[in-house]
Amino acid sequence: MLLIISACSNKEDQRSTSKEEANQQEEEIVAVEVDGKIVFPLTGLAVQEGELDQRPVAVMINNHPNARPQSGLHKADVVYEALAEGNITRFLAIFQSEIPDVIGPVRSAREYYVDLSKGFNALYINHGWSPSAKEKLEAGEAEYLNGLFYDGTLFWRADHRKAPHNSYISNENIAKGAEFNHFEMTAKVEPYEFLTEEEVVNLKGEQANKFVIKYDNSQTWHAAYEYNQTKHSYRRYSGNEQTVDLESEEPITLSNILVVEMDHNLIDDYGRRGIDLTSGGKAILLQNGLKQDVEWENIDGRILPVNNGEIVKFVPGRTWINIVPNIEDTFSIQS
User: Fold this and answer.
1) Are 289 and 224 in contact (CB under 8 A)?
2) Domain spanning 197-333: CATH 3.50.90.10
3) Exposure winner among 76, 107, 118, 261, fewest CB in 10 A?
4) In this predicted model, what pLDDT tens digit does every residue of 120-152 receive, in sequence order?
């Protein structure tokens, strides 16, 4: 009898604890408002559909010419672009307000991309890994789904492209993989700070409607941006081709481009890099057709623009962060 009473009491305590934890999590999910509207935490755009407490998903996306145009990249809230090997850049796309039906081509992990994903407590999606990224992920620094283990199940190979440029995953399969691995897919998402409409109108800076970031002398590796005064957004180009979605042909439209200078070094004979994500340094922030010279800092795992010790707020919309070895050598305004 005592054993039965004790077991019942323990079950009641567990139910009570679970209920308290659920209530605590609900209390932690705070709606962010900009201009009186409830907005998504990483875009500052008004919530129409989607969930405020959707856990971010960070996907390694291929940027080799044979992988263009990509799928789903236009729906990323934040994209980090950085060099992988040689002059080839790779994207870490952070999805929170929308998770596309198709995402890819998915590519392999590098340690600095893993570290960048941790600033969002994101579920990390990759297909393959470098030795240092493997070490980080297997040590539990981030929860992940790796196509090496789910090729042909959660990930599939598209027949219109050749490996390694043909690995894809879907929103549905990400959810299946998360459930199978008992990964939580709701979370309190720490918001960015956003400008109000009045603050956007009053932005100051040097006019810069067109500019280019050169990761190499070849235009194949140029990331070019053009500001549309009517639509108040930037469009992106690679190798003189506009960056659009493969399936819908919808262009990528951005409100903020942050160019950050970070120290790069080679770490192996294969040409893999290490990138200093923590020291801070020179940066350029482009918003509303204007250029501001700022600094960058790593604040709780996120790369943010800073001026005189204060975080510079983003214009509501999607953000692209270009990581470069040297701003003076890579960034130029075009006439």
Assistant:
1) no
2) yes
3) 118
4) 999 999 999 999 999 999 999 999 999 999 999
